[in-house]
UniProtKB/TrEMBL annotation:
Its EC number is 3.2.1.52. Residues 1-23 form the signal peptide. It catalyses: Hydrolysis of terminal non-reducing N-acetyl-D-hexosamine residues in N-acetyl-beta-D-hexosaminides. This is beta-N-acetylhexosaminidase. Residues 103-415 form the Glycoside hydrolase family 3 N-terminal domain. Keywords: Glycosidase, Hydrolase, Signal. Residues 28-53 are annotated as: Disordered. Pfam families: Glyco_hydro_3. It is an enzyme of class 3 (hydrolase). InterPro entries: GH (IPR017853), Glyco_hydro_3_N (IPR001764), Glyco_hydro_3_N_sf (IPR036962), NagZ_Beta-hexosaminidase (IPR050226). Residues 30-39 have a biased composition (Low complexity). Belongs to the glycosyl hydrolase 3 family. GO terms for molecular function: hydrolase activity.
Amino acid sequence: MAIVKTLSRALVVPLLLLLGACGDEPAPTPAATGSVPPAASVPPSAPGAPVGDPAARAAEVVARLSDEDLAGQVLMPYAYGSSATAVDPDNAKANQGLAGVDTPAEMITKYRLGGLILVGFTVDDPTSKTNPTTNVENPKQVRELTAGLQQAAAGLPATAPLMIGMDQEYGVVTRVADGVTMLPSAMAFGAAREPALTEAAWHAAGEELAAMGITVDFAPVADTLNTGGGGVIGSRSFGSDARVNAGQVAAAVRGLQSAGVAATLKHFPGHGHTTADSHSELPLIGQSRRTWETQDMPPFRSGIEAGAGLVMSGHLNLASVDKGVPATFSHKIMTDVLRGQLKFTGVAVTDAMNMAPAKKWPAGEAAVRALNAGNDMLLMPPDIGAARDGILDGLKTGSLKRERLTEAVTRILTLKFTTALTPQPDLTVVGSAAHEKAVAAADAAAVTILRGRCAGPLTTGPVSVTAPASREVARTNLIKALQAAGVPVQTAGGTVIHLTGYGDERVDLNDRAAITVMMDSPGLLAAATSPTLIATYSSSRLSMEALAAVIAGKAAAPGRSPIAVGKLPRTACAA
């Protein structure tokens, strides 16, 4: 197990020490209780490897940092290029436009950055609007990239490891897919309803991320959906039951952090009961305060109690608390509720600052507003130089108090020095047999039959597998898995098994299919006419193998849909 400490002590120590560094300036009030996130893995050669207590080390560093160093520590942009120091002309030009430098390493040095997020663009990714490039390819490349980034950070005055983050939620939001053990979507874990399986699978994921040099995963999604699962979050959520989600979120946090990667709860105060997409507009959370506390708060509370290292603020309008103000910029939400009511003492990180609601203000003003609200780390500012300069100007004018900035940097450094305590695993853990076994158990527990028989083979004789063209990889994997399970497969003329997935609509169904399978949020199954309806919530190879075992009659389908699907039962196979 990774080290877990109470963050109240971790913050009290450096903040008391800062009294001597800041003259008569009052120290910021430390949060009351909470946990330091368990350690995340960075290379043993990473800069600033802590010798003693991370909190004391953070205090020592913060006390000697200049305003420019402090401003850099709260910035976490993205960069172009799959190497820290060698990029092609197109990526160099893009970095020049973003930060006035050629390479990611130069960006770290110029702005004295505290972190960097690795990004990936794919057409089907619901977060693709804010990811204009891809700098992750495979585990070996990512490990080399992160090592180069850490080497650049070694030369900064902070002598602290770089915080390297990534949105590795799995399911429809997956940055590195090649060569890793692919977990199913969060909704699959919600269907399995077994937190122990969730924790084991996320521990496997954490070890693989740590081996690649990732110190922070922007996961799990703690949003609770409405009953029918509508809205933009979909299968990224564990489901529509806040109590069940709370157990799943805590399990995912424990799994990730026991492997040495800090977990992030998102999107606070909750994106599941909204219909708008915060990438392009400000979604409304319209529940009363009491209803919000019942439907949206529990998973965040449980994740905090499990010791999550970070909470991500959403660009969301929680009207019952601070009407019209995006949560990212709301002191009432990010300080009064998150710090006061929920007692969170870790790092508060904004959602991407290049999303539309955050671009209401110029980058410098937005940076100061987000920090004053209670955020510590600013993710993906649209103009890095302007964000940095806005922070420095805020210090000069008094619109941003230095103690608020030092409080933020103290939290960030405490997290980074804590995560640096865990040695980096070897890349051989990535895709290992042990990890596949752990994840396969969760996939098998998730398979849900919403209509059809539950015992024995679900079809006899040869089968033919159909799917929209975009599902060819999953179709091929299912064919191989069916053949391995002893089910004869032919190109045409067999009993039709039809696959559908993320983004598919009624037109993508096959009315001739005997079995229709939904590999994402299962709502589309309400419109399917097949006598047998199955949800896997995932299109990964391991999910297709679990599906094949059910179709062949070699395994049961123990899952239960975490959302309502029309008039269908949550499962046709109730015990």
